[in-house]
Specification:
elongated, 3-stranded antiparallel sheet, SH3 type barrels, 8-stranded mixed sheet, 2 domains, alpha+beta, 356 residues, binds zinc ion
């Protein structure tokens, strides 16, 4: 079987059909004969639900047979309630509906239930099963519904999650987009998945094991290398849900990049280390240039530039020692500077309280 996984726009219909036609049996189940019966005969379609827009009998049939799926993924920054909920129709509808629904099933001694996250084997997935070591060799999905014709034909309706590299590039290039090839953003972590409302029916034999995927609410940074999702990708709008904005740059948190948190209870801003350094150096520069007749502020011009005025004059690093507040180690790069290097406590760029 060839589970479909592609996002609209990434693959042509022809390519999708080619994928569906080949019916390679999952390598982990060599006992299963590689015959056409392993092929998934079901397809998920998204009907037009407005009877005024219906033009063909087939569209009408799809609408009449539609079911409503409440998405198990509700992102904190969803643009509206139920953003990912949608109507869908599994075709051929009669065959799908005649199969009995089950709440769980067993593969290789493991019990899978509705709502479980699973690793799915794609055509390019290597034969050895290493979902922990190389999770990105697998696709990840969440089980929404299970139906079976008999013990050999068990199907799951799933909603896909995507690795950031699999996201389609947005139609207008995003400023934090990492490359042209995909919609991966700078804030996406290496253990991050993006939940979607793209659905498919899979033969459960394509499952390579259970996946543990944590819903991260961005209230802590205690991820411990677990797989997590915090953001959704909506099929209808092709938009990613909003994330919590942080820092003076109004940017986002990549859990693999250190951030500093202001302890002032009325502020609590999270700060990227490079933007905190930018603020420190801007202040140092201003202080040292306030009486040279060229006010530092005027040079900065209110914008963050790639060549900030302090660039060849000062540099800084942040030093942290156990239980001590972080300090900035500042170096004066100008000739004849005295002192050459000194340390300063760091003030929050928003509220000026010293970081603890
Ligand atoms: Zn920032
Ligand atoms: Zn603050």
């Amino acid at each position: 079987m060839a589970p479909k996984h592609g996002l609209a726009g990434l693959q042509s219909e022809e390519q999708l059909a080619k994928r569906a036609k080949s019916s390679a049996t999952p390598a982990s189940r060599s006992a299963t004969p590689a015959d056409t019966s392993a092929k998934v005969p079901f397809k998920v379609e998204y009907p037009i639900m407005d009877s005024e827009k219906i033009q063909t009998d087939r569209q009408k049939e799809l609408m009449d047979a539609a079911d409503f799926q409440v998405s198990p993924f509700v992102a904190k920054g969803a643009s509206k309630e139920g953003e990912l909920d949608q109507y869908y129709t599994v075709t051929p509808t009669n065959e799908w509906e005649q199969m009995k629904k089950y709440n769980n099933f067993i593969i290789q001694g493991e019990v899978y239930k509705n709502n479980q996250f699973v690793f799915v084997r794609g055509e390019d997935t290597p034969k050895d099963k290493d979902t922990e070591g190389r999770p990105k060799d697998f696709w990840v999905a969440r089980i929404l519904q299970v139906r079976a014709k008999n013990a050999q034909h068990v199907y799951a309706l799933v909603a896909w999650l995507y690795w950031p590299e699999e996201l389609p590039p947005p139609s207008v290039k995003a400023s934090d987009q990492l490359g042209k090839e995909s919609g991966k953003r700078r804030y996406h972590g290496s253990h991050e998945l993006i939940a979607s409302n793209y659905m498919d029916v899979l033969d459960v034999l394509s499952f390579a094991g259970k996946a543990e995927v944590h819903h991260w609410l961005e209230e802590d940074d205690n991820l411990q290398h677990k797989l997590y999702w915090r953001q959704t990708f909506c099929r209808e709008t092709q938009a990613l849900s909003k994330l919590r904005q942080h820092c003076t740059c109004k940017g986002y948190f990549n859990p693999e990049v250190t951030m500093y948190i202001c302890d002032n209870p009325t502020c609590k801003i999270w700060l990227h280390d490079d933007h905190l350094l930018d603020d420190i150096l801007t202040k140092v520069y201003k202080k040292h240039n306030s009486n040279d007749g060229t006010n530092g502020v005027a040079k900065i011009n209110g914008k963050k530039s790639k060549n900030p005025p302090y660039k060849n004059a000062f540099k800084a690093t942040i030093r942290e020692e156990n239980d001590e507040p972080p300090v900035a180690v500042i170096t004066d790069l100008r000739p004849n500077a005295d002192p050459k290097t000194w340390e300063e406590r760091i003030a929050c760029p928003e509220c000026e309280e010293l970081l603890q």
